[in-house]
Amino acid sequence: MGVPKTTARAVSQEAFNDLVFENINDLEMDPTEALQDAIQTLTLQGVDLSGIVTSLPGESNPVIECLEKLKQFENEDITLDEIVEVFDKLVELCGGEDGNGNAAIATKNGGVELVCGVFEKIRSSDGSRVVLVSGLNALALLLHDVQSTGTFQNSNGPRIIIGIINDNKQNIDVLNSSFRVVASAATGDEIVKDSFMELKVDELIVEIMSVHKNPGIQSLYDAIRVLLTPDDNRVLASQVYGYARKFAKIGITDALVDSLHTGLSSPDLVSACITLKATAVNDEICKSIAEKGGIDVVLKCIDDSGEQGNTDVAKVCCSLLSKLAGSDANKSAIVGKGGMDKLIKLSARYADDPTVLQEIMSIISVLSLRSPENAARAIEAGAGDLAIQAMQKFPAAHQMQRNSCLMIRNLVARNPENRTILLNNGIEKHIRKAKQTHANCKEAATDALRDLGLDSYNL
């Protein structure tokens, strides 16, 4: 376990302002010098200045101005059209070059609570959808760290967002912006994930996917992926594995497989593959995906990606297939459907792209694990030549070199005949070079050399 990071010291806006004025009044600095000295002094003391307005005394801050206008809405001193302008300005401020800094200022000064409060008032108002979309886009940018997502949780944010989704199931713009908030809010926050799941966001997602197909809602895929990612470092045991099983049980994998059938013409293909991989957390789910035609459609997409030169699709489909191949039953199905030949064919089309080659090697490695029949079939298809040629051609591609070593190990571990073939073709020197050149290859290369039967594998 690593050493916990020391929590940075904090300072209030009032204390920061007092320091600046002290520099001006007591040390007779000009305002610019006083501001820079305060920033430098506090930074050297390890104080976290995120969320602090560091403008010159008397200068207005555009983020604070936006928040002041949102407060006027509580007293009905501002119209819906004006609220849209405020939200759009926040999107501009928090989505630009200084986005994180401005988002921190907004959240430290009550921005999340104010936006949630606006939503509570306008959800049932006529003509409020434009306001919702604009406000949701702003809120998604404000939710940038665990402090802001914690505030969102304490402001009944999950309940408010689920309510907006339920009220706008036919409006793609509102749904897209709503699920963008779900993804932002749930990132790195297990408590928020749990709140959304308790509010049955999974059932809502499946329902909406059944209504909006081809194209689907892009941010919805992001929301699923984030909900199923164990990314909260504050918890020892994440619940996302259980969430994935709940998603699968109510039909999310079926819906995702269906979305793949449109093929490369679908703008959702990459997102759907990444999301389907996130749901495939156990053998049962992997097999159910195969039973719904998942392997067939992924292999077809792999073929099409090679023919059309679509690198992004090639990589995500290979990554998904590698996950599905974790099931022993699926290994046989993939090989039986000509998977090895399709992968080697794809490697020939992407012979100049190590990022694709490393994904192909990863699948072959999984397919060959504890399966001498598949390892033999891989060598017949050309996996050995792939390893030698790629390692020779891309010596600096450390991840590809590592994946090649892992693949070689699985190809030879239970197949003595493969050892002879690879050694006679000169694989040893390439493995040793990878071991000497890349720190992340050392262990994988050592294991490969050992399973090749070389006594000097530790050298």
TrEMBL record:
Keyword Repeat: yes
Protein name (database record): Armadillo repeat-containing protein 6
Gene3D superfamilies: Leucine-rich Repeat Variant (1.25.10.10)
Xref: InterPro entries: ARM-like, ARM-type_fold, Armadillo
Keyword Repeat: yes
SMART domains per UniProt: ARM
Annotated keywords: Repeat
Domain of life: Eukaryota
